[in-house]
Each structure stands twice: as C-alpha cells, then as structure tokens.
Amino acid sequence: MLTPSRLFRRLRALLTRRRFDADVEEEIRFHLEMEAAKQQARGLAPAAATSEASRRFGSTTVAREEVRDAHGLTPVDDLRRDLRFAARSLARAPAYTAVALLTLALGIGGTIAVFTLVNATLIQPLPFHDPGRIMAVRGVTREGQAIPVSVPNFLDWKQQNHSFDLLATYNTRRGNLLGGNDPQRVSLTTVSGEFFPILGVMAMAGRSIAPADQTGDHPATIVLSYGLWRRAFGGDTGIVGRHLSLGDGSDYLVAGIMPGTFDFPQGTEVWASRSFQGVRWTRNAINDQVIGRLRNGTTLQSTRQEMDLIAARLKAAFPNETENQTATISVRPLAEELSDGIRTYLLLVQVSVLFVLLVGCANLASAGLARGIQREREMGLRTALGASRGRLLRQLLTEHLLVGVAGGLLGLGLALVLLKSLVLLAPAGLLPLRDLAPDLTVVVTALALSVIVGLGIGLLPAILGSRLELRSALGSAGGGSSRRRAGAGWALVSAEIGLSLMLLIGAGLLIHSFGRVLSEDPGARMEDVLTAEVFLPRSRYPTPETGLVFWERLLDRVRAAPGVRSAAAASAIPLGLGTSGYLEIEGQEGTPTGGYRLVTDDYFKTMDLHLLRGRGFTTADDSTHPHVTIINQAMADKYWKGQDPVGRRFRAKSWDWHPDVWLTVIGVVNNVRYWTLEAKPEPEHFVYFRQRPDRLQGMTLVAHTAGDPAEVSAAVRSAFRQTDPDVPADVSTMTQKRDDTLRQRRFIMTLLGGFAAFALLLAAIGIYGVLSYVTASRTREIGVRIALGARRQGVLALVMRQAASPVLWGVLAGLGGALALSRLMDALLYGISARDAFTFLAAPPVLVLVAAAACVVPARRALRIDPMVAIRSD
Fold first, then answer.
1. Buried-most residue among 51, 64, 451, 742 (CB within 10 A)?
2. Considering the chain, what percentage of its residues have pLDDT values greater than 90?
3. What's the rounded Cα separation, in Å, for the pair 395 and 86?
4. Which DSSP string corresponds to 600-631?
C-alpha cells in the first residue's frame, strides 16, 4: 500500500536522483567490503575474499534494480530510456519527423488559436464585476424580433421593477469631437449614469461617468477610450479636467480615460453622459439599449415574470402608444446577448479546424504504418532478444507521444501568430478585440490535446507494429503483417477522404451562398459613388435655417467640383443604417412600420433610383406647402396591395418630428436594400429636406463621379473646408460600403476554403503514401504479371483499383457526415439550403480528381517495374 510516508520517500528519491544513486552505490560497496573483511578473517586471501563476497552478495545490477523498484524509480528510468531511444529513432528519419511536426503544429496551432477565441468569447466570463448578474433588457416584437427601447419606457421600467439594483440605457452612433487639435468623427455612446456602476469597470485615469452626471446640477461629462486618448491627445493625462464639445451645443468635461482592455459597446471611442430632464420623449422613439444588474438572490425567471407584468401594465396605461402594443420584454444575460453574432461562426470554424487536425492525425497514422514496414526487422530482432509485446508497444507509443507533445508545443507558439493574424484579417465586430493571449485553460487544453493526438496517431501503428510474425519479420516478406497494415492504411484513407469531403462541402456551400449574395441587386448605384457622412454641430447650426444654408452651399460646391456628375444628401443611404418607425395609415388599423429617409434634390438621380409612378420632389415642395412623400415598392405592396398608393395619406409617428402632420404619397420608387445585400427590402418613405429642415443635422453626402471616386475625394474634402472647416466627415465610397457588408462572409468562406484545401492536400498525401506502400509490397506479384504478359493498362488498372474502394467508402461517409452536420450551416447561408443539391453533387468529383492525381506517381512507378528484378527480390 502506498502510504504518504512511502510516497514522500519516492518523491525525494526522484528529486535527488544523483544523491540517491550515490547512496545506493555506497551501501552496496559497504556490504561488499564488510563481507570481504569477514572472509579475510576466515583466512582467505584478499582477492579470494573479494570474489567470495561478490558471489555471496549476488548481482549488483539486480540489487540496484530492486532498490529502484522499491522506491518506484524503475518506471521513470524506463520512460527516460524510451524517450532517448525515441528521440534517436526520430532523428534517423528527419523527413518523417519534419512533416509530422509541421502537420501537427499547423493542426494543433489552428485548433488552439480558434479555441482561444471560443474561450474568450463563449466560455470565459465578461471582464466586468460579477458579470453573471448583468442582464440585457430589450423589447421584443410579436414576430420575436429584438428591438431597442424608448426612454419613457426605460424610465418606467426603472421605477416599477424590484429585480434590478441598477438599470442603465445606452445609445451608440457616429458623432463629432471638437476642441482638440482637429475636429474628427468618433464612435460615440451616450450612457445614463448607472452604466459604469453596473459594469463595475474603473477608469485608468480620472473617473468614469456617475449617476450624478445626468442631473442638471452637474456638468455633462465624457470619458475617452484608451485608443482615442493615445491617438488624438498623444497620451497626455492633462486632458482630464478639460472641456470638449460633441457638437450638440453643450460643453463636456473630460472625466476620465478608460483602460485599454475595456471595449463595450465594441468600438466605442467616447462615452458621454446624457440627461433625461427638460426633453420631451415619445414612447414610439425606440432608440436605446438597456442593461441592468440583478439584485442578490433574484432569479432570472422571477425577473422575467416581473418585467412581463410591467409590460402588461404599460400596455394598459398607454393604449395609444404603438410600442407597448407590439412588444414584450426580454431579459437575458449580457454574455449571451454579445455572443449571438459570433457563436455560430466560431463553432463552425472550431469544428472545421478540428476536422483538419483529424485528417492530419489520420495522415500521420498511415505514415506510421508505412514506416513500420521499414522497422519490422528491427522489431523482430528485439522480440527475438526477449522484448515482450508490451515493451514494444510502449516504445512505439512513446515515439508518437514525443511527436505529439513536440508538435503541440510548436502549435502553441504558432497559435499566438495565428491569433494576431485572425484579429487583423477579420472584419470589425466579428472577433473580440481584447487581449487574446492563451490563458491557463487554453494551455492545459493544448497539452492535453497534444497527448491525445500523440496517442491517436500512434495507437494503431503501435498495435500492429508490436504484433509480429517472427519468421516473416526476420525474413524478407511481410506476409500477413503487411496485409494488416495495408487494410488499416486504407481505412485511415477512407476517414481522411470523408472528413475532407465534409470540409469541401462546407466551403462549397459558403462559396455558393456568397455568389447568391453578390447576385442580389442593391437597388441603387454602387459604382462611382463617393459618400461623406456628416453631423452638423448644433453649436454652429442652432436653427433649421442655418442647417439648410450649409447643405445648399456644400451641394453647390460639390456639384461644381471637377469629375462630379451629380450630388445629393440623405439621412440614410443604401447598405447603411436605415431608420424605421411606426406609422399611422389613414383608413387602416394596426401598427404599420416604415423606414424614414430625408433626401435632397437629385438624390434619386444620383443613386439611380427609378420613379415607378407618380412624380418626384420639386423645389415648390417646401414647408409652406402640403407635406408630401415618396414611398418604395415594398411599402406600396404591403399597405396598398392591388391599389394605387398615389394620393394616400399617412403619418410618421416615430422618426418624424411632426407626428401629427399627414404626408400625401406623390410617387413610388424601386426598392433599395439597407444594412446588407441579403437584407430583405422593407417598406420605406422619402421626405423632402425643404419640408423638414429641422432634421438636417445628421446626413450623408453622395456624389456620382465620372471616374474613380478616390480621385474626386480631394475636391469633395476641399468643398467641406470651404463650407465649414470645423465640420468633420467620414469619407468613403459605395463600393467600400458594399465590400464592408461582405467581409464577414468572405472571411469565413476564405477560412473554411483554406481548411478544405489543406485537408485535401493531406488526404492526397495519405493516398499517395498508402498506395506507394501497397504497390511496393506487391512488387513481386506485379513483376510476375508483367513477365506473364500483362499489359500496361491492366497493371495501371490493378494499382488504381486498390484506391477506388477506400475512396468510394470515404466519399459515402463524407456525404453522410455533411448531411448530418448541415444544420450548423443554416444560419450562415443565403439563398440556398444547407443541403444544396448542386454543392453536394459537385464536391465529390473534385475530391475524386484529387485522389486520382495522388495515385498517378505510384501507378507510374508500378509500370516501370523490371520483371527480372522483381522476381529475384525474394
């Protein structure tokens, strides 16, 4: 029984090995000397006494082994010898060792890199204080779609609930930052005072926004991100305490600077306090996100029940407010909310890279089987000299474990490089941007994976390599052992083919889906269009008239710039963030919704929108004339299907600042896609800017150019400086915006396509290796066939036929596996099914061609066999 004292003695002996060995030698020498002295006392000569003492003592080697066994050191010694022998054996096969280490480094490195992302995003808690109690609270439509919240509803939630210690609202948009060296556009998040206390994150310098900052007794405050502080202010902590402007007519006190690890909401550069006092808010303006911290002892289920009661209460209290008629309340952990957009992507990539690793393992296992043929004679000699099968099995497994661990360590280093590459190449918002260095969980996982991989690639070669037919092993023919290895090798090839086909089908589905997305018509001009997003500072443009003058002057200058065919502006442009709100349609019941787009002259011409019926806007449609609107075809089909919508009236209850004014439909234009190319066109209406000059603060300039928009950008920037040098703009092009919407799909498609290509390469190498081995083992048979008159075509068919059956079984297994896992792809595809027949039929021929190419070299080698040499080989 291994008692604690015996365990302590064993550990001490292991840790002080040299001293222990010296003590053992000293004790053996003492016993020998004592016995020799006793024999001399009996009258023997010194030499005879020493010899008699050695005879009586017995074998000193056995004595040493018994002492080491008693202290548990023999297994350690055996392991050390096995490792030394394994290292020498691998050094004698440098090509195999290099390929094995490279394959495992790529497979394990990719797996660990992706697992680091999965760990940071889906497993590890958020970097906030007690993140498990932080909830995301949102409205939900009757169709189950999550929507933002209005300020009045948020204030009622805050007052009536008993489940949350704190509730906070936040709203992210693009804004201006004025007062520094140069005006610039920034990602701005306005937050209520409880936002930072809920998250429990402290500022790096100064302080964060506090609840007192949203009252009228304290100045409005802002907090800067670490990146903006370094970029715009050179890392000067003196910025804390200064005043800057966001262009809304108020000065903001810089309260603090957040640490570099804080990035919520993702990409925010400035957090600004907001006040709910002195502003008339409507419940139909659903613009805000809400987070809350649960009270101690409160369950998520009871919180959801309470919030449902509050929703019902608000619905009864405000029956005419459309938001409360169409939405309930959702409460879920913030971690789940943030991982929604990336969870499926990460799981798909993780499964794909694991498949690549499995293909690599099967490849190395088949290579190990082929390598075992070269070592049959060695293993036969070891067996003849007394080595047991267990001893051979342990030695072979040790070699593969050494390869697995070495490949894992290399892979861990490679994972650091891959992580940086993935973060740099991935589109914004897809991957977390905080520190992604592997933590203890990732390192332990990497080491465990290395051991598992080592066992996985070595188990089958070790079992077959230790089960020898001694006569054939010491002779020249492999016999049954060779046939067993060939069968196992082909089974591994089938597994490689199946896994590779699954990856190939997955990549094919993404490529086919990407083609469908590209084929979608955005509904507006994409080529040769320059855009510039603008937010007019209220401090410089306090009235609607001043904003109207700015846009008239800017558009005149841009239209006069060389290379500009036409120019206009709109509150929302295609493939951008479209705004939507509730409507009231004359003569109709329910709560219809529609997009709100404010446009200037020439917008439809500039963006190539087509008037399908009715008329367009004219300069006579100003604020002194009846208010008119132009709708898109989707709105006409949804609310006036089979009728002429021209002359119909409705009111915009949310986004329009004149919700009681009726808008008369004067025309219908074609549908335009917002957000992304795959987004379904939704009902929307266009309002003329001269009738709503009070909504001109946030607009986007669009200019149709005669050539490359980049060549015109300098002239457009000059027009901005001439109009007002203190108004910054985000300049881009429509093609860039289109590419931005496709980056996420393109990134995942490229990643999975690369995995599939690498897996195909490994599968081809596996087929080549096994077929080369099988062909070599049948050299004599092929020589006899050729000597007896077999034709080249027959020999070629014989060799190729050996690979046909494993490839066929692998294809069938791969098709079955792809069908079983196709549901994982559903959320990532557009325009096609996850079981798309074209992709499933097109992928197998590609893999078969690759397999056929891998068979060419062994087949040509078989055709060059000299019958006389082959027959004499035995």
1. 742
2. 23
3. 7
4. -TTHHHHTT--EEEE----TT-STTS--EEEE
